[in-house]
Amino acid sequence: MEINFITIYDNTAEAKCLFVSESITDVLGYLPEELIGMGGYYLTHPDERQALSVVHRSNVKNERMSCVNTYRNRHKDGHYIMCDVVVHYCYDVLICTNFAVVNEDCSKHKIRASSADEVYVVQPDGSIQSSDAWNTCQERIKYLLAEKYPWDINKNVIEAQEPRFCLFINRYTNLSIVVFATQMCQQIVGSSQIGLIGESLYDFVDTEDRSNVAELIELSKSSGLISRIRFNWKRQDNGDLVSIEAVCSCTFDGLVLIARENSCSTQ
Question: Taking every annotated instance into account, which residue ranges of this chain make up the domain PAS (predicted)?
């Protein structure tokens, strides 16, 4: 059985840890508070850090909604555990769902790899192996990995980032209750962070889209799929509909949904 947890990192070159969910103890042996403030490379294998910095650079430069990175994380007792880390780029933070890989042939590992924007597997020798994600090819991946450093001398991101917000959703209720939200939800859909907490996601989804959204969320819960969802969000302040594009992935500690305004909308 897969065990998993959620992490949030800041958007600096160091990727400092801002949040860790409780299930990290089951995976890596640490208490969440032991890792807060640590750099994102702290738990990684020294032989893989250079490759991971290249992948990190690409994720930030291209603002990927979902990228699966497979590499080793150090357990508190000193041994290493292979993990699938699904990186969701979300404006000023990186939100990750982390899954211990029982074996490379496990079905959920394959499902994640087939449903992400990009897939990188860091080998023990520090090389990067790319997998065939649905919208990429080997030549494109080589180009992405060659892109320039996205941070300034102070390790802060240079270019303005696309507005996005994140919701953590209680996976153990059919109502999809929101338990956490990031600040950008106010700008994009007119709802405050505090105002969303405790509310059902479906109360904000246009009636015509609710069944489809619910179906894709349940699919993500049951299969490990990184679900891609498009729907109209009904603003509570003025009743307007906002076309939203989102991805979601699911852990024991909750479902993570990253959303942005759908620039391809014809409305």
Answer: 1-63
